[in-house]
Amino acid sequence: MKNLKQFALKNLLRSSVLWAAFAPVLLPATVSAAPLSKPEPQLSQSVIGRIQKLMDNPSTWQKIPKQVTLCVYSPDGPKGESFKQAMSYLTEVPKYTRMAKDIGIDLNVTMLNPLTLRIDIGYPKLKKRASTETKIRVYSDERVLAEDFKMKKCDGAGMSNIRARQFNAFAGSMDAIGGILTYKQLSEAISLLSRPEFASRMTNRDYEVVGIIPLGAAYIMVNDRKINTLAKAAGKKVAVFDFDKSQAKLVQRIGAQPVAVDFTSVGGKFNNGEVQIMAGPALIFKPMELSKGMIGPNGEIKGAIIRFPLMQVTGVLMMHRGKFPDGLGQIVREVSSLNLAPAYDFVYQTENDIPVKYWMDVPGTDKPGYLKMMREARIAMTQDGYYDKTMMQFLKRVRCKFEPTNYECSMNEE
Q: Is 110 in a helix, a strand, or coil?
């Protein structure tokens, strides 16, 4: 699709590219994806201490790789606007070398060509120096990227959390239906998961999740405003991603008919009426031209986006543990959790850019029913093995921290 170059996975791309520049050299902490007009993120003393401990360990220097391949998903490849924007953030890297200098590290990043950069790092305290050449491989097909990461053709990867669930079921269950209802809850969850006590959960054999990136709440989108209750969704055709079996399971639970789609086909099927209901974050509305599926023959607004979060959509950054020094993943997780502002700025912008006429609110009296349905679906799909039980317990604690009087907080099914 022509406008897919605006596809908002550029947030995931941007974070992936920044990680590419610093993960190999142990210093993701020196860079911020935030606009320069905003305050630089402040590292806690515990994070600075971990960085210095890592740098002081002689074995760290033995494991710094000379070459690294980072694979990232960009629907329109390396020539697309989204990837160009992501790469543009590397031009700001030199402005953050001061932060590295403040903790005794010399850092230099050089672009050798549009998809290759060299990172030189020096540590005067131990009189150590190392260089890493990072090659960025861009994929327009996320399925192929995941397979190449599995086959170790990629040392690190950036992809959607739904796709990445195969590598880490715990982290991949964050996008569970109704698991996180607000952006405040999501920020809290990402911050908590970046702590050292969750390190073992963020690893699975050779795979390690080193960053979680918000991509926006997923909203139900309908081509007919009359489909405004769960009962009215029964019998309707609903788009589900073919690689996520839990979506089809959920659709069947409400008596609707699942129709398999992928990122390239979902917009077209919604716009031409092959599916009547789909779900997704606001970031897909413009590039997929979903307004076409919501406008009737006379130009009236027939469909709508239901302003009720179904789930949170996130992206993840992952690496093969054996390729990098021990302890690097924990540092990257903690630092990336401090750099969420640009992702949220983009999420808010995409939601606010959608004209008010396309939105439809859920009556307050209907919300308890939606929450009950999502809770029951979560429990059932956890029992069926689609969601990680420990993650469901964790997400419930986060929800109840913000809404302690919610009825679910006194129940123990999750």
A: strand
The 10s digit of each residue's pLDDT in 351-399 is 999 999 999 998 888 888 888 888 998 999 999 999 999 999 999 999 9
Nearest to 241 by CA among 257, 207, 220, 265: 265
Instruction: Tell me the CA distances in angstroms from 139 to 65, 74, 78, 300, 375, one per residue in order.
Output: 23, 6, 8, 38, 35
CA distance linking residue 69 with residue 179, whole number of Å: 33
SS3 94: helix
Helix axes 367-383, 245-253, angle to 10 degrees: 130
CB 238 within 8 A of CB 258: yes
Using 50, 70 and 90 to split pLDDT, how confident is the model at 5? very low
Say whether pLDDT at 254 is over 70: yes
Q: How confident is the model at residue 28 (pLDDT cuts 50, 70, 90)?
A: very low
Q: CA 363, CA 366: separation in Å to the nearest integer?
A: 5
Q: Which of 317, 315, 333 is nearest to 197 (CA)?
A: 333
Report residue 183: phi and psi, to 5°.
Answer: -70, -30
Q: Are 247 and 311 in contact (CB under 8 A)?
A: no
Q: Do residues 311 and 218 touch, judged by C-beta distance below 8 A?
A: yes
Phi, psi of 212, deg, nearest 5: -125, 130
Residues 6+ apart with CB under 8 A from 57: 325
Distance CA 242, CA 315 (A): 18
Phi, psi at 157, each rounded to 5°: -150, 150
Q: What does pTM read for this prediction?
A: 0.87
Amino acid at 96: Y
DSSP 130-182: EEEEEEEEEES-HHHHHHHHHTTS-SEEEEEHHHHTTT-HHHHGGG-TTS--S
**Is residue 66 within 8 Å of residue 151, measured between CB atoms?**
no
